[in-house]
Amino acid sequence: MTDHNSPAGAVGEGQPSGQPGPFGPSQQPPQHAWQGQGNQAPAPQQPSAPQQPQPLPSDAARAQVAAAWVRSTPRAGQAAVPSLPPRETRPQGESKKEKRERERAARKAAYEQKKAEKEQRKRGGAARPAAATAPSPSSAPTAQHAPVSQHTPVHGHQAAAPAPSAASPAPAPGTGSTAPAGGGLHPGHPGHSAPKPLPARDFDVPKPGGRISGGGRRTHVALRATLLITTCVFALGSCGVMGLVIGKSSGTTTAGLDASDANRYRLTEFPTEQAAAFAEQYAQLCMTFSPDTSSARRTDLARYASAGVDPDCGWSGEGTSKAVSVTWDGTAEKLPEYGDHGRYLGVQVRTEDGTLTTLTVPVYVQNLATGEGMRVSGDVGQMPLPAAADVPEVDQGDEVVDDTLSTQLQKEVLPGYFEAWGASNATAMARFLTPDATLTATTGLAGRLTAPQIGTVVALVPASAQNSKPYTYDSGQAVQVRVAVDWTDSKGVAVRRAYRMTIVNTAQGWFVKDVRGGVLDAEGGRADSDSDSATGTASPSAGSSGAPSPSAPASAPVPSSTAKPGKS
User: What confidence tier does 52 reach under pLDDT thresholds 50, 70, 90?
Assistant: First the structure.
């Protein structure tokens, strides 16, 4: 239906200016095309030939007229809606290749401009403001081929303001101001402001993966080549070092020891331990003799000795003797006649009457690698015992003894502990032990010694507690104690043993932490005299052949059972 109250309802005559008729487009001349030159006046349009109205459906014509009226007629309290510029489109005659060329030219122009600014900064001056840039060549085709668009006129005599086109030049980057276009503000205009130079920058940060600025392609290629060569050199060097290390470690190496080192550490190819065991067996047969077993003894000795050795090992056939222990004393002298295949070995023999004798036995070994082919290659000789030295005196002047604590331990702690320790009674020992007691303190003697009697007890005051008297001990303070205990062995014989103990003070009293055997003799010196070191019992004497022969029992006294342990 037609709205007769609206000017748009008229058909043909009386319709508003610029409104389309019912059967065709508007009879007004077409508007000028949007230009891209700022505020330039539109070019005059050439009169076009009258177009013939094209018939449209009545419903479509009415809808078009109503929409045009709504757009052009403002409502009460609202301003007129301006017409928007037409959408910029690519000229119909521009191909994809031309578009790429245009974009490439634009990038090249931007690159040249940045390069010029950089050269200006290198010379020390600030970048000068760029002049108004002429329209780029890429914008010309756009302006030429831009289609002329129809503009819908607004209500009344209001004209649509031309919008800037995409062909207008963009402001030059880095100048700080926009170049004046046609119709723009000139430098003398009051609203015009002078361009402000930007501060100079130190360097440009390249994009990730891009080339370093200032060097060009040659610098970039040289840097890559340097990095590659350096990496290869390091890789080759690492491979060479690893090859040398592996080659040296895989090779067989021998210890470079000279004759002095061999003598210092007693290194030799001679099987000393096997030859010493062989010499011990021969010495035991030699020092055990009796007229009843003379023939069997001679047969046994022949299996050890060479052809020229005395078959009776120096025994004259009289008297008896029995060796109870035979031990190699660790001495080995080289046989010059046999070189590395022979040694003089020292053997200590103790007989049943208590006499200790040292014999020297020459031993020959045929195979040094396996120790096979051993023989006693000469007669034995008796030698004196090794010289005994005097023990130096121990300086105990810095030791401080707590007599009160010694008496307390002797009466209250040590008797019960040693009784449980001698029997290995774990339940009874737990009453006297600290939680961190050692294995020797918790194991015991398993009944080998019984009936302990606590003798001398010496409690040494630690250095941290020597400043106070009477001596006071902190909780957890450890005290070293020397104890002498009289035991009874399984045969009922009383023996005295000495111990070193560690006692710890706690809130509940004193507890045992550690027990170790042996106490040092502070007096030192020697218990025997030079004449007591001579041996004589069952000692062979030299016969006519130079070989030792047994003699009558000697007058050397036998050590008494009352002698102190460890003294001889």
Answer: low
